[in-house]
Amino acid sequence: MATLSEKVLTKAEQNSKTAQNGRAEVEKTGTDGTAGTPGTTDATEPVRPAAPSTPVLSVRDVRISDRAAGQEIVHGVTFTLTPGKAVGIVGESGSGKTLTCRATLGILPAHFEVTGGSIEIDGQDISGLSSARWTALRGATISAVFQDPASYLNPSIRVGAQIAEVLKVKKGLKRREAHRQAIELLHAVRLRDPELVYSQYTYELSGGMLQRVLIAAAIAAGPRILIADEATTALDVTVQAEILDLLADLRERTGLALVLVSHDLAVVAQLCDEVLVMRQGEVVEQGPTHEVLHNPRHEYTRLLIAEHEQYGLDKFLGADAVEPVRTDALNVVEAVEEDA
Amino acid sequence: MSTDRSAPQPAQPVLDVTDLEVHYGVRRRRRQALDRVSLSIAPGETVGIIGETGSGKSTLARAVLGLVRASAGSIVIDGEEVGSYGHRQWRALRRRGVIQYVFQDPLRSLDPDVPVEASLAEPLLIQGVSRQEAATRVRAFLERVRLSADLLDRLPGELSGGQRQRVAVARALVTEPRLVILDEPVSALDSANRVQILQILKELRADGVALVFISHDLGSVAGVADRIAVLYQGELVEVGATADVINQPQHPYTRLLVRSAPTLHSAAADRAERESLRALLHA
């Protein structure tokens, strides 16, 4: 798969016209991409609060099929994302959560296609979008980070230069200004020594630091939507919490809307307003996080909760927030396993 | 700083590590990986060793395995001081099957060309168990890890990730060890498989098998461990009963671990606390 940064780096002539000399602190991002074509967005437009009711992303009954196998893999996913909102998708590998994200980004693998429903990013239906329009949209309006940060960065180029490249291509910045803003971004993702990190190579950085670099690159052009697909899965729990806190922080400060994908219900529950539980291409449960945690209706959701109640820290922490799930919920393990 | 709040253990420990030090590298590149680590595991006890990448948790496992040499301290396995063991003695000890291991990635610990049955029988045949007896025991242990006998002639590549890890657990158990060391055994598995492996491990405790559960995630071992030992930068900073460590963590790093583990409970208040703990630890 072509990496996000590569995509971002590919020609985006329209965008380079939006040269912006002003400061591009992260605080201001999320308000510069207004409805319409990002390529024609006037960067000097005054900051205006986005109407919270206007969705930045609507996914309506999206179905995805594998043309080679002649099979529908994802059977209808629906959710809406308004600025500052966070939606979580929980499911195991093969549940269709990643395919859903990839469809949203227009990067479905070969012979997979959206065969039903619609996806609108910032009011634009993405079906039949030209590759030039996609390039304009990615990075500037919708962005993403994935599980293995190192594989999205070039090992032979300093990481800072890779972020600066995004700024040069997407925002048309000159070298010096791109360098300055890249350092600001590294600072914004709370890397302790931004100047040092700027000049380092991927092998010199830990997984958590690399994921921060990737997040910095992903938010460089001020997107309104960030998709984090298992972005913390390979990290130590303490580092995972740091990254999740960072995402929560970006969301609060900039109104960034999040799609958080994880196999762990607890990860999603911490950050998201709404949760979708997927299994075998189907959304088996969907609703406000609180509701899903307290009144899980599907046996699979109950299993996900029971895992934490029986084997996780929740077993020891005060049971004030969540009703304990009966032990027999664990019996569904066998059932779930068998028809998986 | 070490806070041991666990009750005294009466029986002779299956593993007794005292003031263990391990160094990597030589001369100026010499780095200390473990600093005076002491830990005792009682028969049938389950202990979780928690630490981040680079904390020395895998080094501890490797030292107990005889894969890295300790520069100081002692390791006593089932009453035998193994610190001065040579290659041969280690091999003899391992062949006895008293201590066994399960690693994170079963694909890398199972020979891809060996079917499940042969893979499980091998440690028994090495011990001199008859083929017939080995076959019976292999089937019994396969059942204990809830795998069907139909899988016996499959290759590891023909199994799902969860099935493979259960085969690895079964192989660790066939020699009826007194101690099993598990290094991130469920980290790569999905929920259903994780719960299943944890259930199997819980049952083992009833048989008096001691388990050492190594993980970066306190949450993944909390449900099965009697005690938790926290390793931070090569030092054992806290040891105690699981509920105590979670409810009254003493060391700032343990507190950060507890506050960082994903839980279903609202974590809004934890964010500020995490922030201050990080600042404290990095100061």
How would you summarize the topology of this molecule?
The complex is a heterodimer of chains A (340) and B (283).
Chain A: H1 4-9, H2 13-16, E1 57-66, E2 71-81, E3 86-90, H3 97-105, E4 112-121, E5 124-125, H4 131-137, E6 142-145, H5 159-171, H6 175-188, H7 194-198, H8 207-219, E7 225-229, H9 237-254, E8 257-262, H10 265-271, E9 274-279, E10 282-288, H11 289-294, H12 299-311, H13 332-339
Parallel strand pairs in A: 3-8, 3-9, 6-7, 7-8
Antiparallel strand pairs in A: 1-2, 1-4, 4-5, 9-10
Chain B: E1 15-24, E2 31-41, E3 46-50, H1 57-65, E4 72-77, E5 80-81, H2 87-96, E6 99-102, H3 106-109, H4 116-126, H5 131-144, H6 161-173, E7 179-183, H7 191-206, E8 210-215, H8 218-222, E9 227-232, E10 235-241, H9 242-247, H10 252-260, H11 268-282
Parallel strand pairs in B: 3-8, 3-9, 6-7, 7-8
Antiparallel strand pairs in B: 1-2, 1-4, 4-5, 9-10
CATH class of the largest domain in chain B: Alpha Beta
CATH architecture of the largest domain in chain B: 3-Layer(aba) Sandwich
**DSSP helix fraction of chain B:** 25-40%
Which geometry of chain B do the CA atoms define? Answer: globular
Mean pLDDT of chain B: 88
What is the total tally of β strands of chain A?
A: 10
Please report the first level of CATH classification, the CATH class of the largest domain in chain A.
Answer: Alpha Beta
Helix content, binned percent of chain A: 25-40%
CATH topology of the largest domain in chain A: Rossmann fold
What number of domains of chain A? 2
β-strand amount of chain A: 15-25%
Estimate the global geometry of chain A from the Cα principal axes.
globular
Give the SSE string of chain B. EEEHEEHEHHHHEHEHEEHHH
Flag low-confidence runs of chain A.
1-48, 319-329, 331-340
How many helical stretches of chain A?
13
Q: Describe the biggest sheet of chain B?
A: 6 strands, mixed
Instruction: Give the low-pLDDT segments of chain B.
Output: none
